[in-house]
Amino acid sequence: MEARKREGGGMARRVYWKGYLKLSLVTCRVSMTPAVTESAKLRFHNINAKTGNRVVSRYVDSVTGKPVDEDDQMRGYPQDEDNYVLFEEEELDEVALESTRTIDIERFVPAGSIDWIWYDSPHYLAPADKVSEEAFSVIREAMAKTGTAGISRLVLYRREHAVLLLARDRGMLAWTLRYGDEVRGGEEFFADAGKEAPSAKALTMMKKLIGERLDSWSPDLVQDPVEDRLHAIIKARKKAAKPAKPKKSEPPKRDNVIDIMTALRKSLASEKKSTAKD
């Protein structure tokens, strides 16, 4: 966990993309970098148990089984089982639109009007130089004051994405949005969720239970316990110490059918005891 905390402190910003932010006739240079990273996560290699050497993967011809050099590799879109429409890397680059280097804000929507299910990957957006700061800040502050988000398009990862721009601190968040055919409607899935409304008494008790557990947001609430345990095991094995196996906690026994009111009363009583101890 310490390694993950160190990552965010005092490191130079790695710029992932540079281009222009454009709104009508107002243009400024901007730089962008992913807002999330997995670089601090543990990575394991495949090892040959007999030799202790790493196992490496290679691209091979699916028919001949022979390795294929990088220069001989092309992109192919399958027409049928054995036929492909072939593309060179340069051809795919040429297909890219103007949005490869320009985020042209086409329209605005209320900032909270897009359901979170459409949000894909977040990126930080900031002015790329001093000259661009004024134009960038005007766009950002106007969006913040009006409670709006900008909609644009941008080529990332070799595909054009719809992008949602949100004012954040002194910069912006640029969220790539999922495509329309990637988001499933939930109506059919929730059809069997039941239409019966809960009783007023049960709802009151449940709201009280939520209140007992209400806390302020902190990144500590979403730490990865598995990652922490793996770090501990690795550290112990580095010292040639055999780590003790964690004791498995038995799940609490429960009846197949639980009365909701009884469960709520017990939950609230438990929360009060826990609060009193703290």
From TrEMBL:
Q: Which residues form the Ku domain?
A: 65-195
Gene Ontology biological process terms in this record: DNA recombination; double-strand break repair via nonhomologous end joining
Which portions of the chain have biased composition (kind: Basic residues)? 237-246
Q: Name one GO molecular function term.
A: double-stranded DNA binding
Q: Where is this region: Disordered?
A: 237-257
Q: Name one Pfam family in it.
A: Ku
Q: Where on the tree of life does the source sit, at the highest rank?
A: Bacteria
Q: Which UniProt keywords apply?
A: DNA damage, DNA recombination, DNA repair, DNA-binding
Q: Is Ribosomal protein given among the entry's keywords?
A: no
Which protein family is named in the record? Belongs to the prokaryotic Ku family.
Subunit details: Homodimer. Interacts with LigD.
This chain's function reads: With LigD forms a non-homologous end joining (NHEJ) DNA repair enzyme, which repairs dsDNA breaks with reduced fidelity. Binds linear dsDNA with 5'- and 3'- overhangs but not closed circular dsDNA nor ssDNA. Recruits and stimulates the ligase activity of LigD.
Q: What is this protein called?
A: Non-homologous end joining protein Ku
Organism expressing this protein natively: Ciceribacter selenitireducens ATCC BAA-1503
